[in-house]
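hiii, so i know i said id send this last week but things got crazy w the move. better late than never?? heres the sequnce for the chain we talked about at the cafe, plus the structure i predicted for it. fair warning i was half asleep when i ran it
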Amino acid sequence: MKKQIFCQFLVVCMLLWSSQIQGNRCDDSGIQALMACGYSIAKELSSPPKPLDGCCTAVRIIGMKCVCEIINKEIESAIDMQKLVNVASACGRPLAPHSQCGSYLVPGVA
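okay and structure toks below
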């Protein structure tokens, strides 16, 4: 089980790394933040109760605007966008309701 989870995490990291090669805006910084938060946002992994300190540090330093700019369909297929929204909020950098992150529309408060 642990080996399978680790392999899935490696796939997420490879997808993030491959998008870095494409030369998108904010690519280096945004990729670093996503990789630091990999265990909290991967689709195939259960989320930890709270993001790791390194994840929140990256989110705070880099900012979610940059992270959202580099997210493409390939990255969206590997990460859970709602987990990303939750991580941003837990790290003190919440995404505005109805804002765009990649192609994902951040839900509004009901």
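btw Helices lie at 2-21, 27-36, 38-41, 53-62, 64-70, 73-78, 81-90. thought thatd interest u
miss u guys!!
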